[in-house]
From TrEMBL:
Glycosyltransferase 2-like domain location: 11-156
Statement: the UniProt record of this protein carries the keyword Transferase: yes
Transferase as UniProt keyword: yes
Keywords attached to this entry: Transferase
GO molecular function annotations of the record: transferase activity
Annotated protein name in UniProt: Putative glycosyltransferase
Length: 535
């Protein structure tokens, strides 16, 4: 690939953490560059998937493995290994267009004082297979423009002069927005260049960190606060204050759009987190959200009343107006068959997420979750070193292991500090084998966090045909103690007669008070949860 492999002109540093499924595209995009005087360094930040195997398919790629330390540390490692005069950082799930290196290099060669040059990019929406050009506006002063917002947007559009890293490195204390931080550092001290040619593609998929809008907003505001001490002029301070408002407005709009368009797919906790972020950072948009919520609720109630009056005989309508006192007054048709997703969120998720929140200190180290890693990332956060996903469907690109939990020899034994297993065992016919697998793959001292349904209607979605069981505290306790040992298991039950009835009827979480939710009667078990430690 390189015309001079010992002295490449450009080093492309690809950082990868469990994204081996995308790696071929990113590597091939460098091989396809019109500029051939380059090298590729792949920094594997502790991946547990096929990253190394993919890298070994390319003899010219210099593969460097390190224990998981985060994106900033991985990029710093790449800098230490780079031979090129110019550096480009490419995330494993993105790719460069064929002229990217040549375009940026020509501009950098034209101004030897420049610390970096940046260009425009495309968004690729993986779920829709659609592209969208992104070309952010900026002013004549790059530092002032960056204070007002991150006009660069995509890190792979940037080509750095190697010498700039003698002055700056990526801040390993930052969990996100580390690229924005280094742009500000560099642009404050050195000249930088910009152009509007599209040179890279940012892949937008379910795993992107950027989808966690509250977290990204906190990260951006944290970086802004970090740079406040460096402001020297009134113009810089004005740009800084405008930037804070710009970040708040940008993410508040995204949050509002998400709550308006895909609310039914969000967990109750995610909705609460989005609403609190919106309330804190954009009272105006929060007021709009609450008005819309009231309007929707009002229209829904009015529509239901009109429908009832139109379809039911008068005698039944009058009966429904009376306070129900007998079982027959409740009716035989549920309010919802979607577990309350269409009425503000599921009741049972409140208990599941409360259980995980109270045991979040156990979600640490290397964690395995079944299906996806949403709960691992949400409740484990920075305590998680490696997040693995076991999924039965090989087409799931986020899975680090593919297979059936009852028979998973490909999952290493004694490997995990924690397993998050929520609402899964009832879908498995031989659930005992599934728990035995969990025991096998846990490290000694590792913990299984498990929840199962007790009182529940059978799902009417794609999972309904797999629904095998409901549990009680006695059955779950027997199952776990037979495998983990009696002293290693602790159970909890959640629910009461009101919650169980509301859940069966399909009521949503907002229709019950916290006091009603938090009263637990072991004779009405909606959710059973347990911790089980491996000796």
């Amino acid at each position: 690939m390189s015309l001079n492999p010992n002295q490449p002109l450009v080093t492309v540093i690809i950082t990868c953490y469990n994204q081996g499924r995308y790696l071929t595209t990113s590597i091939e995009s460098v091989y396809s560059q019109s500029l051939k005087e380059s090298e590729i360094i792949l920094i594997d930040d502790g991946s547990t998937d096929n990253t190394r195997i993919v890298a070994e398919m390319y003899p010219d790629v210099r593969y460097v493995y390190q224990e998981n330390q985060g994106l900033s540390a991985a990029r710093n490692t790449g800098i230490d290994h780079a031979k090129g005069k110019y550096l480009v950082f490419l995330d494993a799930d993105d790719w460069l267009l064929p002229q990217a290196l040549a375009i940026n290099l020509s501009l950098m060669r034209g101004d030897q004082r420049a610390a970096f040059v940046s260009g425009a990019y495309q968004l690729y929406y993986e779920d829709r297979d659609q592209y969208q050009n992104v070309n952010n506006e900026y002013g004549p002063d790059a530092y002032l423009s960056l204070l007002r917002g991150n006009f660069i947007g995509m890190h792979a559009t940037v080509m750095y002069a190697r010498w700039v890293f003698d002055s700056f490195r990526y801040d390993t204390s930052l969990s996100n927005c580390e690229d924005y931080d280094i742009y500000l550092n560099i642009a404050r001290k050195f000249p930088v260049l910009r152009h509007q040619q599209v040179i890279a593609v940012y892949r937008y998929h379910l795993g992107n960190m950027s989808k966690d809008y509250p977290r990204m907003l906190r990260g951006a505001l944290h970086v802004m606060k970090k740079h406040e001490k460096d402001l020297r002029t009134e113009e810089e301070r004005e740009s800084y204050l405008a930037g804070i408002e710009s970040w708040k407005h940008f993410y508040s709009k995204e949050i509002l759009l998400r709550l308006q368009s895909v609310r039914k797919h969000l967990s109750a906790e995610a909705i609460d987190r989005d609403r609190e972020t919106l309330k804190e950072n954009s009272p105006e948009l929060f007021a709009k959200l609450t008005r819309d919520e009231r309007s929707i609720e009002k229209r829904a109630r009015k529509g239901i009343r009109m429908l009832v009056k139109r379809l039911l005989p008068v005698v039944i309508v009058e009966k429904l107006k009376r306070k129900p006192t007998r079982l027959t007054d409740l009716g035989v048709v549920p309010l919802s068959t979607d577990f309350g997703y269409d009425r503000g969120g599921p009741v049972d998720r409140y208990y599941i997420e409360d259980f995980l929140q109270r045991h979040s200190g156990l979600i640490r180290g290397r964690v395995l979750e079944i299906g996806d890693n949403d709960y691992t990332l949400r409740f484990g956060g920075g305590k998680v070193d490696i997040s693995d996903i076991l999924h039965v469907d090989a087409s799931n690109q986020d899975a680090t292991f593919v297979g059936d939990l009852t028979d998973a020899p490909q999952v290493p034994g004694n490997a995990f500090d924690c397993i998050v297993l929520t609402q899964t065992l009832h879908l498995i016919y031989d659930y005992k084998k599934a728990v035995e697998t969990c025991y096998r793959v846990l490290k000694p001292g590792g913990v299984l966090l498990v929840t199962v349904p007790g009182i529940s209607h059978i799902g009417q979605d794609q999972w309904g045909k797999y629904w095998q069981w409901s549990f009680t505290n006695n059955s779950l306790n027997r199952l776990l103690t037979d495998i983990f040992g009696e002293k290693q298991v602790k159970l909890e039950t959640f629910g009461n007669v009101l919650v169980a009835s509301a859940f069966l009827y399909g009521a949503g979480l907002p229709e019950l008070t916290k006091e009603q939710m938090n009263y637990h009667d072991k004779h009405f078990q909606v959710i059973i949860a347990a911790t089980a430690f491996k000796k």
